[in-house]
Amino acid sequence: MKSNILYTLVLATVLLISCNPKSKTSESEAVTYDASFVVEAEAFADLQILRYEVPGFNQLTLQQKQLAYYLYEAALSGRDIIYDQKSKYGLLVRKTIEAVYENYKGDKNDTSWKQFEAYCGRVWFSNGNYHHYSNEKFIPACTYDYFKNLVSTTPSNALPLNEGENIEAFTKRIQPIIFDASFMPKCVDLRAGVDNIANSANNYYEGVTQNEVEAFYNLKDTKGNAPSWGLNSKVVKENGQLTERIWKVGGMYDKSITQIVYWLEKATGVAENDQQKKSIQLLVDFYKTGDLKTFDDYSIEWVHDTASRIDVVNGFIEVYLDAIGKKGSFQSMVSMKDMEATKRIAAIAAKAQWFEDHSPLMPEHKKKQVKGITAKAITTIVESGDNAPSTPIGVNLPNADWIRKEYGSKSVSLSNIIHSYNVNSSKSGMLDEFVIDETVKNRLKKYGALASDLHTDMHECIGHASGQINKGVETPDKTLKNYASCLEEARADLVGLYYIMDKKLIEIGVAESEEVGKAGYDQYMMNGLMTQLTRLKPGEKLEEAHMRNRQLNARWVFEKGKQDNVVELVKVNNQTYVRINDYNKLRNLFGQLLREIQRIKSEGDYKAATALVETYGVNVDPVLHKEIISRYATLGIKPYRGFIQPVLEPVLEGDKIIDVKVTYPTSFFQQMMDYKKKYSFLPTVN
Ligand code: ZN
Questions:
Q1: Dihedrals φ, ψ of 337, to 5°?
Q2: How far is the CA of 96 from the centre of ligand 1 (A)?
Q3: Is the pLDDT of residue 475 over 50?
Q4: How far apart are the CA of 489 and the centre of ligand 1, in A?
Q5: Which has the least CB within 10 A, 107, 212, 248, 654?
Q6: How far does the centroid of ligand 1 lie from the alpha carbon of residue 628, in Å?
Q7: How far apart are CA 192 and CA 144, in angstroms?
Q8: Of 106-115, 208-217, 219-228, where does mean pLDDT reach its minimum?
């Protein structure tokens, strides 16, 4: 089961609320967010652009700042690659709109211009003209004639024309690429019964069929420690034979990768320790040779580098953009350890055995020796490629299963990104719309964010790590089949829910009062029973494992607690609200459900799994759903959010770096034009 990315898909459905700066410790590590920092920037189409701070950056040592700066340049140097990976025309589209956008002298309030501008924003947001989430091609709202006119008033030397091509021929050539939604309509086509390779617009394959590609890779040995074949190449046909064009120095994407290597080599010179130096050096070797065995060696050394404050992901990592899951899209994330949040996670992981011993599981299902999964929280410094502008909030890498098994993985949550989401969500109006009780509202304002952080920490560190399967019972993917991942997520959530009301959290210093736990229950029940439904269209059922598990948990305790009136759905002025009447009884119910789901997993009880998920986790109350959607619509919230990146700039004395300054641009559009000037390395193909 691959669960390496955690996304917040839609705004505010988890309803995290926070305005409190995190500044509890007095040590130098304490992180303080600037309360006057404006999180929101531009909004257009279905997108909201946000900004994030990098608290603590100025307290880094000069060497750490230099390291961060070199890795930052390496990250952005690969930006072109993702555009080309998503479509062979991606860079052509981007360079065209950039030329028009930069040279436009007309009325910027003109409706057609506004439509074209929104199109530019969407292309930059999605790293091409396929929606970053749905993968569908999108086209401008303005007319082709208007666009043609824009292009013809743009200096021809600014446009990506072919040699000898005039503007007339150029606009004709790009017409289907930009304006025809049925021309290469989907970036990734996963439909059953069609050739998923030939029908996907991405640039991982060309002129080859799915059967040919599968046969090509089936020849490779995939046993044991075999590398992830195909991760770093495009497959094409030459003289009737399939062949790979490798992404490396001297290969495909040479100009970008050469830049990446230049900055990574500088980074090795200021690495924090030998382990980090070794790992970055192996990454350089990988980019120079394209050897996937070297990439695995690098990944192992990267997992071993836990001491460094600065960390980096840079490479061809996630494979979701490839219908057959082989090709890695370029991404980079430079970060620094969030010392305070990491301490909180470590405090929980250190008590993993205590939590296991005191859990409501049946004694025979408890682990005698539980090892908490150590995770860390990070402060993001910059993201690029497939990680930006839309970003995950949690990452667990590397992806190679055999490395995870033998050497472990790094699980991180992106503290400052989550903080920005929280600040933005607190202004969304969700709280006023869906919470009627003032006590609850105030509690959520005060403790909602911490409750959510703690719940996530416990879900990851002690939730998934808890419990054991009975001897002789097969693994859940075999016994519980299609319900395995939903129930696994439900189990991990329930461990977090059970303990968020426990005094132990106060004792180990991660929560200041039981109010934190109550806030956790308030938001979990509201989300599970109501607000997460905003993600579904009318008539849809719950499919995604996390959404299913959240409703399953919330519905089950709601139904089982009816007799004692533990949780109610109350109507005020025809609007539905969740009211929790007894937090302790609710905790007890969460404990009972945890015990039962662990039993199902331990015994491999498929029948009970089916009944549980199908009864509580799949169906949606159509009347309530309709009400929630219409109330949500009145808030005018954009469904997707992404980020402007901070800018790092070295302060020079002669050619010596004496400091690195971080600044926070306020315009996404301006940042895209800045990136155009600084980080356009790859040529356009015709
Ligand atoms: Zn999980």
A1: -65, 135
A2: 42
A3: yes
A4: 5
A5: 654
A6: 26
A7: 34
A8: 219-228
- Determine how many CB atoms are found less than 10 A away from the CB of residue 222: 10
Query: CA 54, 59, 40 angle in degrees (round to 5)?
Result: 15
> Phi and psi for 317 in degrees, rounded to 5?
-110, -70
pLDDT at 412: 87
Q: What is the gyration radius of the CA atoms in the chain, in angstroms?
A: 26
Amino acid identity, position 83: Y
The span from the CA of 270 to the CA of 277, in Å, is 8
What is the Å distance from ligand 1's center to 460 Cα? Answer: 6
Token readout for 459 is 């879900």
Domain 2-56+253-633 has CATH 3.30.540.30: yes
Residue extents of the structural domains in the chain:
2-56+253-633, 81-179
Rounded to the nearest angstrom, the distance between the alpha carbon of 1 and the centre of ligand 1 is 11
**Strand, helix or coil at 682?**
coil
Inform me whether the pLDDT recorded for 545 exceeds 90: no
Higher-pLDDT residue of 10 and 294 is 294
Ligand 1 centroid, distance to 681 Cα (angstroms): 39
Strand 330-337 versus strand 205-206 pairing type: unpaired
Tokens standing for 233? 């190449």
Could you tell me which of 396, 397, 357, 521 has the C-alpha nearest to residue 454? 521
Q: How far is the CA of 488 from the centre of ligand 1 (A)?
A: 7
Distance 13 CA to ligand 1 centre (A): 17
Q: What is the rounded distance in angstroms from the CA atom of residue 363 to the CA atom of residue 222?
A: 40
Using CA of residue 441, residue 443, residue 445, residue 451, what is the dihedral sign? negative
Average pLDDT for 59-72: 98
pLDDT on residue 338: 93
Number of residues that make up the chain: 686
Average pLDDT along the chain:
92
**Mean of pLDDT values over 289-315:** 97
* Centroid of ligand 1 to alpha carbon of 354 (angstroms): 21
Q: Which residues pair with 644 in a beta bridge?
A: 51
pLDDT tens-place string over residues 128-183: 999 998 899 999 999 999 999 999 999 999 999 999 999 999 999 999 999 999 99
Q: Ligand 1: distance of its center to the CA of 497 in Å?
A: 13
Q: How many whole angstroms from 122 Cα to the centroid of ligand 1?
A: 31
Tokens matching residue 2: 């691959």
Tokens of 499: 């303990």
Distance 551 CA to ligand 1 centre (A): 15
Q: Per the confidence metrics, is the pTM higher than 0.70? A: yes
323 Cα to the center of ligand 1, angstroms: 24
- pLDDT per residue over 320-352, tens digit each? 899 999 999 999 999 999 998 889 988 998 999
